[in-house]
Amino acid sequence: SSDPIHHDEL
Amino acid sequence: MNIFRLSGDVCHLIAIIILFLKIWRSKSCAGISGKSQVLFALVFTTRYLDLFTSYISAYNTVMKVVYLLLAYSTVGLIFFRFRNSYDSESDSFRVEFLLVPVAGLSFLENYAFTPLEILWTFSIYLESVAILPQLFMITKTGEAESITAHYLLFLGLYRALYLANWLWRFHTEGFYDQIAVVSGVVQTIFYCDFFYLYFTRVLRGSGKMSLP
Questions:
Q1: B184-198: pLDDT as tens digits
Q2: Which of B16, B64, B87, B149 is 20 to 30 A from B133, alpha carbon to alpha carbon?
């Protein structure tokens, strides 16, 4: 996802 | 997922494993800053609370659990199992000078004023300075074993590769996480001096990396 709130990175 | 992020995560995992094995096999944590390791455990704890709230992928979940397990195990080795080899004299960095500003900033500059988001922001800011006690300890003792230097190399490379990942994601999907990028730049800058020493001294094969 591109919105920073949904953090998909470690 | 892209090659920069994947190799960044691999470098991060290698760094954490190098450190854990070094302490475990040498049965000593001499030259290792227990404070930095506690800060890293705190970084993972405050960042990975979403383990319980949102599922992203098997990879994401497994890596978070592995990081948490290794971080707490390393802290356990330093402060319990091999505590008599812990050099608390040299590990004298005042971590409150890191925790207070980082906590304050995470309340001021964040994406959302919710507990989970503030804790995530805290973990991002904290990670960028968590290595300082370790770098401070090395400058204080004036030297580091080459295995510790390899640990720092991979740890520094991991976030540098994440910078490439953010460039790539910005270019390909317009993704831009300002808090993570700015903190990642600061974090990587702290390693620059070490990178220079590493590539000019450690690679010359002089077993220990002695600072000027």
A1: 999 999 999 999 999
A2: B64
